[in-house]
Amino acid sequence: MTKSELYSWLVDSVNHSREKRLKISNKIIENPSIIPSLMDLILNVKDPISCKASWVLEFAIKQKVSLLFPIMDRFTKGLHTLELESSIRPNAKICEILVTNYFSKQDNAVKSTLKSYHLEEITAACFDWLIGNHKVASQAYSMTSLFLLGKKYDWIHPELRIVLEQNYQSGTAAYKARARMILSKLIP
Q: What pTM was computed for the model?
């Protein structure tokens, strides 16, 4: 499948419905050679189709995280370039999936695939999304990722605490709920 065919496919076949996203993500899982072209579309940050490409990648990664391994460098390096909120949210979720797997007690391939520089790029992106003017879902996924990353990098937990405490009063109910949960786990 060419990149232009993938583009047309996303335009014609993907919408907000879980059913459509799941259907297309299953096609991606069956044809992993499409992943680099999908990543190209995600990183075309001014094009609204990047949102649809991000939605599909999120659904595919939820089912098979190893699809991301061959393009992990491009994925983590591209996080800071994302601009559209509809692209940031699914990529923040993918970061949460990666970090959760990395810190899992069970052995898995994510632990051997994610390198320190990947984790540092995820950390930077998550702090940007948490501090910036972003929707609560992106911020909540970032909080979880940063909490877990703080188990490896000592400086993260104190910084995370400061950000959460500063933004708590102005946060939405959902922001406050996630922030309370994370703050309760942080050692004072």
A: 0.94
